[in-house]
# Entry
Amino acid sequence: MRPTIAAWPMPEYRPKPVRARLRSRLLTGVAAAALVVLVTLSGASSRLDAWFQDAFAHLLPGHVDPRIVLVEIDRASLAEIGRWPWSRRVHARLLERLTAVGARGVALDLLLSEPALFDPEGDALLARAIESSSKVVLPVYATSGASGSSAVEL
# Structure
C-alpha cells in the first residue's frame, strides 16, 4: 500500500513591507561601503590597483600635447650640476627661465617639506621665483602624524 502524504497548505506569498526592504537595502549598502573603505585603507587593494593600471594603461591615448614640456632630472643633468639633492637655487633659476619664456603653468614635482640645511638663501630664492611666477603647482604628501593625531600634509 502506498503511503499517503498529507497535503500541507502552502503559505500565501506576502511581499515584505516597503520599510523592511528599504532597511535591508540600506544595511547592505552601508556594509558594502564599509568593506570598500576597510580594504582601501588597509592597502590590501594596492597590488590589484597597480595590476589594473598596468594592464589597461595601453588603452589610454598615446599622443601628447606638443605644448607640454617635461623637464626631468636625468643622468646628464646629474653629471653637469652634481649629485642630488641640488641647491634650491638651481630650481629657482629654472623657474625664472620658464617664467621668462612664458610658461603657462609649471608642476614642480619635488617634495620641499624641510628647509635646506646649508643654503637658506636658496630657499628664499626659490620662494621668490615661485611667487613671481604665480603659475607653479607643488605636490602635497599626506603622512600620518604622531600616534593618535590627524594626518600631516607636507
Observations:
- The CA atoms of residues 51 and 57 lie 10 Å apart.
- The chain is about 45% helix and 5% strand.
- The chain has a mean pLDDT of 86.
- The longest strand covers residues 106-107.
